[in-house]
Batch of 3 targets.
Target 1
Amino acid sequence: MDSSNKQFSHTIEKMLDSIHHNGYDVIENAIPEHLIKQLYQNCLTAPDKFNSAGIGRQQSLKQDARIRTDKTFWLDSKNQEQTNYLALMDKIRLTINRYFYLGLFDYESHFAKYEIGDFYKKHLDAFKGRSNRVFTTVCYLNTPSKGGELLIYSDSSNHIIEKVIPKAGTLVVFESERFPHEVMPADDVRYSIAGWFRKNNSVSGTIDPSS
């Protein structure tokens, strides 16, 4: 097993323990450095792919600059670096299923770009009984000089339980239905990958769509 595989195995072990006890985890240097650099370059070389992000899903999707102002584009399984990242996330999905018996069946993710002044107000990624998103992930691709912090709130109050300063290679994982969170205004350009491990809320045998 090479050093990057050992590093990622340690990431998964730490994450499982923290999720079990706290429902979330923040892991620095979670993703191999060379892959983070490649994914960061993917963002820098494809500025035209980023579009203003919306809120809601499917027919209810809309844009509201009062709530969020970041730009996004979805990962492409035809791109080698992005495929490698998705493969790492699939290892996490399979391990979570093995330990917690959650039946997670896939992972969806997009790049996120926060330019100076961009933000995302406090929100939940899933509402109980109304979403198939189980765990949210945030993977940072660069280290901004200032701003763009992720605030994670207690599920039972407005108390901030974690303030995550963006740092390349850091992976954040938390229960989508449980923890409200927000992204503070960016003072420097901030790139990340936001993702969700999902269960299948199927109806009449039809797989619940990913977007």
Target 2
Amino acid sequence: MSRSQLVAEHLPLLRRYARALTGSQASGDAYVAAMLEALLQDQSLLNEKHGPRAGLFHLFTQIWNSVAINDNGEPVTQAASERRLSNITPLARQAFLLLSLEGFSEEEVAYILDTNVTEIRALTDAAGRELAAEIATDVLIIEDETFIAMDLESLVKNLGHNVIGVARTHTDAIALAKTKQPGLILADIQLADGSSGLDAVNELLRTFEVPVVFITAYPERFLTGERPEPAFLISKPFQPAMVSAVASQALFFQRNSRNRNQRAAAS
């Protein structure tokens, strides 16, 4: 397999991680584009000591740590850079995402983040304490498969959140959200009755802001950058730690955005 084929094979999941790390499709894809540009200029930057996928994530991390980039892939102004620093994903969360969302081993995560396994374990413990301290919120689940919906409901409750309801269709989702506005939405993209969880969420987002985590059996279809796509995406089948990591990351960005708006209003 050629170098370009190896990169293309692992690019969708790198995009998923980048979007979860930055909180948006545009910013995540801009950092991935900057990494690819650096790789085109110097292919020796890709170290495959731990395999090509870990090598790509390691190179991405170097780009992420070295420069602030706007949604068009250009360096940002100092003011925008300061906003990025106030919203940056802490190292503990980076380690937790790499372990729980992307499924890397501790050794691979240590390589990606340029540290050691002992530090990764300490970072993971720190992330666990941070997750435990998350403010509980009301969660709307949009999922038509009964057992998956039950698993999600149980998981969300164990994380300390309240489930306001489980919607199995687009119509159900709109009705439930009108009854009580959720603080977080977990949504399947394709529902069994032919309706779309993505369409339901887009309709809800026209009336209020809420972080959304999408769940799909085909994540690669929504990681191309060719159209507006989810920032937070989980693959089926999922592990509890995966849902915990991504849901917490979505709430992390919402909380930081709210705090910045409050500071701006007070100034």
Target 3
Amino acid sequence: MELNVNKLKTELQKPLPGIPAQYQMAPVSRPKFDVENLSEDQYRPSAVMILFCKDELDDFFIPLIERHAYKGTHSAQISFPGGKYEVEDENLQNTAIRECFEEIGLKEEIEILGKLTRLFIPVSGFLVEPYVGICKIKNPVVIPQEREVKSVLKLSLSQLVDDSIIKEGVVQAGEYKIKTPYFLAEGNKVWGATAMMLNELKTVLKAIL
């Protein structure tokens, strides 16, 4: 499926679908938060990189990472490359680029197109700034960071805009079972904050495809 990058960049400058689009993919029990009224001691600033890449057949895909199982709130989950803001980053765009480089080895190849609506993740306290970028080289070599990344999934553009990959059921999050909608990508359940951001992106894409 083709993607007009200039159209996407223009669309990202317009008013975004925002919270209504995000919450279409929210877990059933997830409360809503007004991020504009959160005080600085209520969250940790962070950023993710939603990166459009072209494979060897010129098809667009977005790399998603599967995290290793560990004793933490996002153990074994599927997410975008990303993480918390560090003072050395100077801004959250640099955070997204740095984390993308650390986790999948892409940095200089990235051109930022815009960003989506911020999203608060209550279980970890992260307030996430989702940046959207394009990889400037074809079929980039993705290098998973061994300590943090178990595998890298390629969510194709055609899959993302296909409503049939949206399912609803129960996911396991540590010792908890959570009822939620999710994207089924390569046999993996993509849910929670990642699915919420993906759905806002999907809404933006459907306006231009």
